[in-house]
Input
Amino acid sequence: MNLKETKITIVGGGSTWTPGILKAMTRYKESLSFKEIVLYDINEERQRHIGEFGKLLFNELCPDVKFEYTTDKELAYKNADYIFCQMRTGGYKMRELDEKIPLEEGVIGQETCGAGGFAYGLRSLRDMIEMVEDVRKYSKDAWILNYTNPAAIVAYGLTKKFKEDKRILNICDQPINMLMSIGKILGVDEQSLEPSYFGLNHFGWFTGLYNKDGQDLLPELKEKILQKGFSPKDAEQRDKSWLDTYALVEDMVRDFPEYVPSTYVQYYLYPEYKTKKLDPKYTRANEVINGREKRVFEECDNAVKAGTTLGSNVVHNDAHGEMIVEIADTIHNNKEKTYIVMVENNGIVSNLPKDAIVEVACVLGNRGPIPFHVGEIDVFYKGLLENQYGYERLTVEAFFEGSYTKALQALTLNRTIVDAKKARRILDRLIKANKAYWPELK
Ligand code: G6P
Ligand code: MN
Output
């Protein structure tokens, strides 16, 4: 076990996901040997609720750990070993607009896919670049583990900007969320499954699921999905919109029976159907604002009032918190476990561009992710992914160059939009809505 004492900083300390990360951390105190935890956020008031909960939690479970929350960058980033990042530039208010503006124009409005993801991407890039620069000023060797969305755009942009920096790892919990659900459907512990997977973030497929005997359980999984449908492991705790989203995995397996796709592929395969199902007056952002956001802050406050976190069920979905902490532990202790994470392609998928950021199975240790080779993918997947790669790249180039034309090209290329006149209408509305966050597009 690596006994070096560590400092871990969570960027976006006021996030609704932070309590889950903190709870997971208490289970890794010995193996991550942390002595100091800092929450950092630009929103002091929001972070206070989570910060007070965290203080109590660590006081109860790991009293020898120094726990702080701050809006001071130096305090947050100085001598840090691991940065867990999950910021949301513009908050849920801007997520709401990302979802509603495209829907009002008759196309998919979603947090990370289509025009919504594009808008969010242009917001995230500025703050994410600033975060990396700030962290590197104070801690040049810290591992930056990043969940910030839209992860595909953020990862591509950061990789272009910080070419030599090998300690930024972009991750997403959807593959592990799916694996947990898959484990339940198959009646096996998902930890015993070694997945093969390829794609871009929020746009990928499971191509194999090997058990300890080397047997591929993917054919059995597809059979079961076709017989009984697909529902998430934690279905009881999921809101209706997510249950609908998971249910469509069955449709995708029926239409394209080769592999099992990520839930997010549905926005690209069934854009018309999905758009009709989504309500421009009440989107996922509203569901979150009225649900998780209220609940998490209330439950944090209640625990603080009660003077104990024991018995508090502030955390429902564990996968998100568990994954980032487990990844830090895997790196810290060089455990060489397999995770599906984002890396620069460089030939992993041999017929996709070298600089695409692919999401694939990697062995992870203290040298970072070592990807498994995928090889050539078939024309259907290549077509879809090349298209999405073009969209992602143009989005990032529009950001760096301040180019309106590239922004319009990006949106036109996106499968959820296609029509250039529609793309222009949406772009112009998004520019107005994002004035405070985007670079000027000329
Ligand atoms: C999954 C994805 C994340 C996304 C989240 C949205 O976990 O991997 O990238 O942010 O879902 O969840 P929400 O409950 O906020 O809609
Ligand atoms: Mn994700």
